[in-house]
Automatic annotation (TrEMBL):
Origin species: Modestobacter versicolor
Signal peptide: none
InterPro entries: DUF222, HNH_nuc
GO molecular function terms listed in the Swiss-Prot or TrEMBL record: endonuclease activity
Official protein name in the record: Endonuclease
């Protein structure tokens, strides 16, 4: 063991900058194989410790609890090592490939997770010899992409009970959402194949429909924005089930003094689900929502509740949609039903709610405009966009001729179209 540590210490002391690209890749490949071999030996040793009840030496009943408590492994990782050790006793070819470094721990877990004790017992009952599958899966693990092995193993597990009832897909679905101190949320979901396909199809449609020029978001960011947009579309459509007698919407409560002040005021506003956001963010939501005024007494009880009214009336929104046609931020073509009506001069600062003072912006670019970017319609009817440093965002220039601008859009005709905002998307209550 001391020799192994010495070798690793020597590797850590190597100067990687002195290696050519090919040498770096060879080193990576070797290290992957070494990690696989080391993990295989860990798995084999843990399995031996489990069968000999070695954890009892430290007063614990299981190797899983020992790995978690003494070596600080995550519970899921400890379970994976235990599960893999038990499975490899029944798959010698896979165990050999693991020990040689050609098979990864994740690949072993694909087999161990799908072909556990119950599935192996079913195979014995049906007279199925696991040896040919062991050889085939090992060959796939060594030669094919990871997903190919998953498909091969899942097909075997399903074939064990071909005549059994089709499982209820809803039983395995899970969605958990955790809220953090700053109001942000993280989540995890588990879906069956069909449910996952539906979610992917919906998100992919929005990702592919909203790819403005110069978009430097990662794929993960695009997916997250698409999920929020999907929910925004549904909230705006007004077709979701009512929530305690009212249509679901975003609620933000903010003191009038903070609302009227131009400062950011972090944490000044509260959302309906308990998150704290800045007054600046609340003013962004108030650009195109509904407003209710509540006067509170010294005892914290409401004394007066004003009538709820829309910041942007439906007829103004229809006119803005007809004139702009899509998000006006340079390079973006997000459709009207994804967009808010932005006040060029905020109504808090005296800007009127009118066609002349309005611009159609998607959520992403509405946020940009409230964080230093600026859009403006020139006398020729073209929308132009400026960065916070004052430079203008222009489309890609042709080889000859002047820089391209978004083409001018005509003023709206008198034909009326249905408004996307038939029901409120955001409510800001001030008191």
């Amino acid at each position: 063991m001391s020799e192994l540590r010495s070798v690793l210490d020597a590797l850590a002391g190597d100067d990687l900058h002195g290696l050519a690209d090919g040498e770096v890749l060879e080193r990576v490949a070797l290290l992957v194989a070494v990690v696989n071999q080391a993990t295989a030996e860990l798995t084999r040793t843990v399995r031996h410790a489990e069968t000999t009840q070695a954890a009892e030496h430290d007063g614990l009943k299981s190797m899983r609890s020992w790995l978690i408590g003494h070596r600080r492994l995550a519970p899921a990782e400890a379970s994976r090592v235990i599960r893999s050790g038990r499975a490899l006793e029944h798959f010698p070819a896979l165990a050999a490939g693991f020990a040689e470094g050609a098979v990864t721990a994740a690949q072993v877990d694909v087999v161990a997770g799908a072909v556990g004790e119950r599935e192996r017992a079913q195979a014995v009952e049906q007279g199925i010899d696991l040896a040919p599958f062991d050889q085939a899966w090992t060959a796939v693990a060594v030669e094919a992409p990871h997903d190919v092995l998953k498909t091969a193993v899942q097909a075997f597990a399903a074939a064990l009970d071909p005549d059994g009832p089709e499982p209820d897909p809803t039983e395995g679905r899970r969605l958990s959402i955790a809220k953090h101190a700053d109001g942000s949320v993280t989540g995890r979901f588990d879906l069956d194949a069909v449910g996952g396909e539906k979610v992917q199809a919906a998100i992919e449609s929005i990702v592919q429909a909203s790819r403005p020029k110069g978009d430097d978001r990662t794929r993960g960011q695009q997916n997250a924005d698409a999920l929020v947009q999907l929910c925004d579309n549904q909230l705006a459509a007004g077709t979701l089930p009512t929530l305690r007698t009212v249509k679901p919407h975003v609620v933000v409560t903010l003191d009038m003094d903070d609302f009227a002040d131009s400062a950011a005021s972090p944490g000044a506003a509260a959302t309906g689900f308990g998150a704290r956001i800045s007054a600046a963010r609340a003013r962004w939501l108030a650009c195109d929502g509904t407003m209710s005024r509540i006067v509170m007494g010294p005892d914290g009880l409401p004394l007066d509740f004003g009538r709820t009214h829309r910041v942007v009336p439906a007829h103004i929104r229809r006119a803005v949609e007809q004139r702009d046609g899509h998000c006006v931020f340079t390079g973006c073509t997000a459709p009207t039903h994804w967009c808010d009506v932005h006040h060029l001069v905020h109504w808090l600062h005296g800007g009127e709610t009118s066609l002349h003072n309005s611009a159609l912006l998607c959520e992403r670019h509405h946020t940009k405009v409230h964080h230093g970017f600026r859009v403006e319609r020139d006398p020729g009817g073209r929308w132009r966009t400026w960065r916070p440093d004052g430079t203008e965002i222009l489309l890609a220039q042709p080889l000859l001729g002047p820089p391209l601008l978004d083409p001018p859009l005509p003023d709206p005709p008198t034909t009326e179209v249905r408004s996307r905002r038939a029901s409120p998307r955001a409510v800001v209550s001030v008191g």
